[in-house]
Amino acid sequence: xxxxxxxxxxxxxxxxxxxxxxxxxxxxxxxxxxxxxxxxxxxxxxxxxxxxxxxxxxxxxxxxxxxxxxxxxxxxxxxxxxxxxxxxxxxxxxxxxxxxxxxxxxxxxxxxxxxxxxxxxxxxxxxxxxxxxxxxxxxxxxxxxxxxxxxxxxxxxxxxxxxxxxxxxxxxxxxxxxxxxxxxxxxxxxxxxxxxxxxxxxxxxxxxxxxxxxxxxxxxxxxxxxxxxxxxxxxxxxxxxxxxxxxxxxxxxxxxxxxxxxxxxxxxxxxxxxxxxxxxxxxxxxxxxxxxxxxxxxxxxxxxxxxxxxxxxx
Length: 314
What we know:
- The protein has helices at 18-31, 47-51, 73-88, 94-108, 113-129, 143-178, 187-207, 222-237, 258-277, 296-313; strands at 7-12, 36-40, 60-63, 66-70, 135-139, 212-218, 244-250, 282-287.
- The chain has one domain: 3-Layer(aba) Sandwich (Rossmann fold), CATH 3.40.50.
- The protein starts with 6 loop residues before the first strand and ends with a helix.
- 57% of the residues lie in helices and 14% in strands.
- By secondary structure, the protein is of the alpha/beta class.
- The model has no long low-confidence stretch (mean pLDDT 83).
- The chain contains ten helices and eight strands.
- Residues 6-306 form the ArsA/GET3 Anion-transporting ATPase-like domain.
- This is Arsenic-transporting ATPase.
- Pfam families: ArsA_ATPase (PF02374).
């Protein structure tokens, strides 16, 4: 059951209601007196707009039992690069420091650098904050970005294994040539080993189905169905199981008028398709509300639907 999970990732196509669903889940837990943290990894943050508060790069209190973080990728990238430079302090000769820093600054401008920094922050939050919070909810970016983020621990493990192996061979050569058989001390090797341990710890948490849950949000329309099917299959190949779907903006039974009646007929076909395609997932339907979720009162209304339907799962 999703209610049992400590860490929940909420994903889906852009515009289907991921942030609203993430916020509603977080609010529901907070109102049940569970200390809850919600984090947006989407560069186009919406949490601050939903809660009508400026949410910072670090923890911001939103209400009793509820804190939020909007990760600033640019800020995180700068912090990440500074940390890399600090790690190398004392490891390179002083005359080389300027050149090494220049190379690191150039690397920070390459594609994927911000993603690496974001991933590093995600690791820190999962490892450090999970000791303090009962529930951690991740409001993720649209599907492709989320898949890359969640599969990075596996990919990074392969990459860092190769780095460690090469470093080990270099150390063995130095040991034989220069150190008379005595093993050399290598801080870089130790840093690589430390990062490997962090990747392994996060991957273990991500794959722990007792602790971590994955929820995808979709609307009963053709493109969100196709994208969700593709995403769940792709994540499944990495042993990440999406077991819950929120079907958002379902037309309510009382919707009337010729236009809505026609839309509802089409929607029935898509709901049937969702049932057929996602046989193994628990599904929650949220009706299309009469008004946008533009303030806390309406978010509470959305959250109430979530509460009621989560109880049905239990």
